[in-house]
Design a protein that fits this description.
Distance between the termini: 64 Å
CATH superfamily: NAD(P)-binding Rossmann-like Domain
Helix content: 40-55%
CATH architecture: 3-Layer(aba) Sandwich
Number of domains: 1
Structural class: alpha/beta
Radius of gyration: 23 Å
Number of helices: 11
Order of helices and strands: HHEEHEHHEEHEEHHHEEEHH
CATH topology: Rossmann fold
CATH class: Alpha Beta
Number of strands: 10
């Protein structure tokens, strides 16, 4: 037997029932719109919609190679959305391809001994008809990042991440720093606005990974930093699909920022251990403050744990 309230609804005419259902749907939509409007949002820097966007990818290992492979799709999408010139990308990495890199990174045995950045740039240029550049050098922390709008950090040590932070902050004019890092089966990406000549102090300025998690740039917390000596060890350190999964999530965030001009989250914590595995990093000053005020030891433990929903994982192993 139906409850009395349901009996009253179903005994009414069909037209009345339709009106009731429409009214309920309208109430739900209003509640949803109210929640969305109450959320803080970040708006894309308008100058990036008027000219070519200059992107620097630092690191061409597991995450870097996956990001590089996805950037042409973002470039094509921007042009389809009406962007005037799309992307111009530079890949930066001093490392050469090793035999173990051919296990979970997109390199072949015939490319062993060649520079990762040059190989990836040449491959993308030939396939997509682009004119992107690969530079086999290490990022110099003493040099300012000039002529760069977005720097994408895909590095494997905290020391290298600290170098990116130093180059992108202070007198630099970098608009955004997108950082990716992972361990065996989880990771995080954080899109931030480095505090520099272009990005002034503001309540809703997107905090960078080095601001939210200072341990991410502390070189003394790095591990041995040694490369994997075998294919089995390389796969033991990282599962084969963690890099493209993380890269796709990060690039999807950039795609939304450019297509819609606004985002309500600027990163996420991603895990392959479950299907419902991504938790967004909201554009929320209160949330940022909670992350930054956690006890240092607790932050380090969660940073190393990788499975925590409130802290990033360790960086990838090249």
């Amino acid at each position: 037997m139906l409850p009395a309230a349901c009996e009253q609804i179903y005994t009414k005419s069909p037209q009345t029932r339709v009106k009731i259902e429409i009214g309920q749907v309208s109430q739900q939509l209003r509640r949803l719109e109210s929640n969305q409007t109450s959320m803080e949002r970040h708006h894309v820097h308008p100058e990036l919609l008027k000219r070519r966007v200059r992107v620097l990818v630092v690191g061409c290992g597991g995450n870097g190679s996956a990001v590089a492979a996805g950037l042409p799709y973002l470039h094509q999408a921007l042009l389809a959305y009406g962007h005037p010139q799309g992307l111009n990308v530079t890949l930066l990495d001093p490392d050469v391809i090793s035999p173990t890199n051919c296990v979970r990174q997109p390199f072949s045995q015939s490319e062993i001994g060649l520079y990762k950045s040059v190989v990836l740039a040449n491959r993308l240029n030939l396939f997509w008809g682009l004119n992107w550049e690969g530079i086999p050098e290490r990022l110099d922390p003493k040099r300012r990042l000039d002529g760069v709008d977005i720097v994408i950090g895909c590095v494997d040590t905290r020391k290298a991440r600290a170098a990116i932070a130093k180059c992108a902050e202070d007198w630099s004019e970098v608009d955004y720093w997108l950082d990716l890092g992972n361990n065996a089966d989880s990771g995080q990406f954080v899109l931030g606005e480095p505090l520099n000549r272009r990005n002034r102090r503001h309540k809703l300025r997107l905090r960078t990974v080095s601001e939210l998690f200072p341990e991410a740039t502390q070189a003394d917390l790095d591990g041995d930093g040694l490369p994997s000596c075998s294919a089995a060890e390389a796969l033991d350190r990282q599962e084969p699909f963690v890099n493209p999964t993380l890269a796709n999530h990060a690039l999807a965030l950039l795609a939304r920022l450019f297509r819609y001009g606004t985002i309500s989250y600027h990163g996420a914590f991603v895990s392959l251990s479950s299907l419902s595995s991504a938790q967004a990093l909201r554009v929320d000053p209160k949330y940022w403050q909670r992350l930054r005020t956690k006890p240092r030891r607790s932050r380090i433990q969660k940073y190393d744990a990788a499975g925590s929903a409130e802290a990033p994982a360790r960086t990838e192993h090249s």
